[in-house]
Amino acid sequence: MIQLVLSSPFLSQDLEQVLRYRQDADLLVLMQDAVVAATAPQWCERLSGIPLYVMGEDLKARGLSPRIGMALDMAGLIKLIAEQGSPQTWAG
């Protein structure tokens, strides 16, 4: 399953909850304000070892560069959803 997180981990508990309840085979996608987690050292450490994708457009819009995860564009997200099925969305 795809776990899709939209809210900043500094303003919401969504990412914390995903980490608590996700299954080993789940993919994690950070988009909108959640992309900040891929740049913050404390979150990068916690996200290490998890299949992680980060929306490139959202990083660019915020002037950020990820330290962890694979960049993903909208076409890539659609492809992941087509392959994996509907995501579980966490949006604060």
Give a brief rundown of this model.
It is built from 4 helices and 5 strands; from the N terminus they run E-H-E-H-E-H-E-H-E.
Looking at this protein, list some descriptive labels.
alpha/beta; 35% helix; five-stranded parallel beta sheet; 4 helices
Explain what the structure shows.
Strands 4-3-2-1-5 form a five-stranded parallel beta sheet, with helices on both faces. The longest helix has 11 residues, at 74-84. It has four helices and five strands. The mean pLDDT is 95. Helix 1 (14-21) links the parallel strand 1 and strand 2 (27-30). The chain is α/β, with parallel strands linked by helices.
Q: How many angstroms does the end-to-end distance come to?
A: 19 Å
* Total number of beta strands: 5
Q: Largest sheet, described in full?
A: 5 strands, parallel
The run of helices and strands is EHEHEHEHE
Strand content: 15-25%
Please tell me what the overall shape is: globular
Spatial sequence of strands, sheet with the most strands: 4-3-2-1-5
Question: How large, in whole angstroms, is the Cα Rg?
Answer: 12 Å
Runs in which pLDDT lies below 50 for 5 or more consecutive residues are: none
Helix content: 25-40%
